[in-house]
Model the fold of this input.
Amino acid sequence: MAQSNDSQNWDLEADVVVIGSGAAGLPAAIKAADGGASVIVVEANYDIGGHAIISGGNLPLGGGTSAQKKYGIPDSPDLVFSDLTDWTIVQNNGWPDYRYNDREVMRAFADHCALTYEFLLENGVEFKPIAPDNQGGHNLGNSAPRENHCFWTKGPGYESPNNRGGTGLIRPLENSARAKGVKFLVNYKMTSFVREGEKSGPLIGVTTAYTPRIMPGQSTPLKSFRSDGNIDSIKPAMAIRAKKAVIVATGGMTSNLNFRRMFDPRLTAVLTVAGEPYSFQDASGELAAMTIGASLWGLVNQTLENGDNIRTQRVLATKWNYMTWELEFPLFPLVRATGLAVKDWHDLILVNQVGKRFYDETKGDYPHGNVYKEVDPYTPNDYRNNENIHFHPTNYNFFNAAVAMNEYSQPPDYSAGPIWAIFDSEAVKRNKWNVEPPYVDPDGYFFSANTLTELATKIKNEFQAKSMKGETLQATVERYNSFVDAGKDADFGKPAPKCKIQTAPFYAAWATPNVHDTRSGLRINAKCQVMDMNGQVIPGLYCAGESAGGFNQHGLGRCTTQGFIAGTNAAREK
Ligand SMILES: Cc1cc2nc3c(=O)[nH]c(=O)nc-3n(C[C@H](O)[C@H](O)[C@H](O)COP(=O)(O)OP(=O)(O)OC[C@H]3O[C@@H](n4cnc5c(N)ncnc54)[C@H](O)[C@@H]3O)c2cc1C
Done:
């Protein structure tokens, strides 16, 4: 496809270079190898998998999969396309799921998602032997159950960084990719794309930098679980020539503070990010592509208040992610605490950095996104579907409150500050929580004291603008306890508050929400080719997964399918 640029020295070369080894990157690499291409996967992390390997492994693919056929579920590409472009569907809070999906991108997804399901099976992925359902799904369409669940048990060859279902997707794909000759360059981060002309001509390669991960107290970098097929030469930087194409599968931009705030200025540094610190979605793919002229697309999908765009913090007292960490997690020295899983929001109250409640704690996430039978009866593209949707906008304003409160907020970003869960020793007993390290992180994310006033003044955290006043927290708790006596939350309507906070010691644990999904990214066409600001294809550059724009759906389904499409087409480049 491309002439080698004389001024660039290449350390490595392959037909297809895939950047990122997560839900989009691995299918892309395998499909490119299936198409006869030599493939190098560049991965910034010490091991493969990205967010996908620590995901729940709930995988939405329909359109007539063998699983749907086995369980007698009618579905087709046309039905998927109709569902995911139906402008009439809105969420309980009034935000539309599918109105702003790009039709070309959706048609390509609809036509390939059943094929991708079969491709995953052929490459060793196993699914739980149950009928596809809608559990864990977001924005999957109304007409058919499409959620499949990866099957995974810990065992030889299937090491998980943190015992999560997504391992059942990623390790089999890794095994298949390595068996098909795909080479992995781990611990190298793509830093730029090389195009024949600065903003013209085909893409001819990438530059990378060595990014080893060394844990505190260790002298050697962390190692990937499998190393056969890894490229093991180490230089501070390497340039890789791509003879046919480069595929961006870098996972999006949630970890990039400035990038994410272009969409929503409220997403300040105080918010945590799902999937960190295993891997970071730092917009490096988008930024490198934009530098050589690529366009972004479908920007509105990032700010639609639905699905997993932001999530409540369900695991307290750790800064990272929103699920408990295993003590064996290789990055445990960084996360420092397993976290305390919340089972019942009646066990605590949530207060802002001032020490005041601001919402009904039992109401958290945005509406999850339309799934099978959510609108019932449902008539595709009929504006009267709205008559069957029960609007509850107040139920879903938790984040709007959490990220927009202004008391104590300070320049430069006027961040709303952290959210703290306040509870007492009875809650600890009820939940059998262990409130010592390494279950909690006392270094800024967990505090205890014998009185509430003392607790308030102990809270110190890099994002807490000023000390919480003891009398404010004391008054908040006393008022809440009076609601428990009365059986009615007169401030925020929490249904029948159950548990007083009255028995010392008292605790404050980090409970700040979590930025989760990237839903806007590079402009792509039906072949997953990246487009420039003039609507022209950038020859040799593809994109798949959360870094690609135009598609408002959570997770693994769109990422694996676009990886499938991108890898197929990249291998066909001349
Ligand atoms: C805790 C958690 C649970 C989830 N559960 C589910 C679920 O049950 N179902 C579902 O559908 N979705 C789920 N998701 C979402 C799903 O995991 C993601 O949507 C999906 O993994 C995104 O795929 P991707 O390939 O775009 O990015 P990723 O899977 O994140 O892969 C991107 C990879 O690119 C690498 N990378 C980034 N920049 C560079 C660079 N410059 N150079 C080299 N490498 C780079 C990263 O290190 C990473 O390995 C979950 C996510 C999280 C965090």
Remarks:
- The chain is about 25% helix and 15% strand.
- The longest strand covers residues 237-248.
- The chain has a mean pLDDT of 94.
- Residues 23 and 52 are 5 Å apart (CA to CA).
